[in-house]
Amino acid sequence: MEGPFIRIEDTGEVSALRPEVTTVGRGRGVDVRLSDPSVSRLHAEFVRRGPYVYVVDLGLSRNGTRVNGRPIARRVLEDGDVVSFGAARCRVGGLPREDVSPDLELRRAAAPELTRREVDVLTSLCRPALSDEAFVAPATAREIAEDLVVTEAAVKQHLLRLYQKFRIPEGTNRRTRLANEVVALGLVRPMPVVPSQRDRRAS
User: Fold this and answer.
1) Average pLDDT of 90-116?
2) Coil, helix or strand for 151?
3) Which domains does the chain carry?
4) What 3-state class would DSSP assign to 195?
5) Which residue has the higher pLDDT, 12 or 74?
6) Given the DSSP bridges, would you call strands 88-93 and 52-57 parallel, antiparallel or unpaired?
7) 109/73: higher pLDDT
8) Which end of the chain has fewer CB atoms within 10 angstroms, the N or the C?
9) Which run of H or E residues covers position 65?
C-alpha cells in the first residue's frame, strides 16, 4: 500500500490514512472503526501535514491514547510506531524515515493573522481545555457568546472564518480540531483560574 496506513493488530485490517484527517473511534461515523469497548465513539485523529503524520487524542475517553506505551495528547509519528487507543493497538506504516525527534510537535510555519475579536473567541473556546481540571470539550458557541457578551450568531460567524483560516475541514468535532490547532500553535495560553461566585460564597 502506498502512503501512510495503520494496521489494526487484533484483526490485521489495514486502513490507508486520508489526505488530511482520519478519525478513529467506536462510533459509526468514524473513518477507522474499532470495536473494543475501551475505545470512545470519537477517540482520536490522525492528521497529515505534507510527509508527516501526527496523532491527536481528542480527550473524550478516559482510557486515552498512547504511542509506544507512552500517554500522549499530540505526537508526530515515525514508521513502525504502535498507537494504542484504550486497549486497541494499531501499528503505523508507510511513513518516510527521517531523523525527526519523536517528541516534536508538528506546527504550522506561521499562524494566520487574527483580529482582536477572533483572538477573544479562540481564548473563550479553549478556556475549558486549559483549566486545571481534566480535559473537557471546548466551549460551545452559546457559552462563548455568554462569555463575550455577544450574540450566538456573531460567534458562529467568527467560528466559520476561523475554520477557514486554520484550514479545519468540515466534519464532526470541528470545534475540538480548531482548539487543538490553536493550543498547539501557542496562540492561547492557560489562564489563572478565577473562583466563581459560588466558590467564593462557599468559602
Assistant:
1) 68
2) coil
3) 5-93 (2.60.200.20), 102-185 (1.10.10.10)
4) coil
5) 12
6) unpaired
7) 73
8) C
9) strand 65-67
Q: Is the pLDDT of residue 79 over 60?
A: yes
CB neighbours (10 Å) of residue 190?
A: 12
* 147 vs 99, more confident: 147
Distance of CA 76 to the CA centre of its chain: 13
Q: Which residues contact 164 (CB under 8 A, 6 or more apart)?
A: none
The whole model's pTM is what? Answer: 0.52
Residues 146 and 189: their CA atoms lie apart, in Å, by 21
Pairwise CA distance, residues 149 & 180, whole Å = 24
- DSSP string of 1-22, one letter each residue: --S-EEEETTT--EEEPPSSEE
CB 55 within 8 A of CB 65: yes
CA distance 167 to 115: 17
Measure CA of the first residue to CA of the last residue in the chain; give whole Å.
Answer: 61
Q: How far apart are CA 57 and CA 38, in angstroms?
A: 14
Query: Is pLDDT at 1 greater than 90 in this prediction?
Result: no
Summarised one tens digit per residue, pLDDT across range 129-162 is: 665 444 467 899 999 999 999 999 999 999 999 9
Please list the residues that pair with 15 across neighbouring strands: 6
Judge contact between 162 and 185, C-beta under 8 A. Answer: no
Give CA–CA dist 166/188, Å, rounded: 14
Cell readout for 13 is 485490517
In angstroms, the CA 138 to CA 124 distance is 9
Q: 47, 176 in Cβ contact below 8 A?
A: no
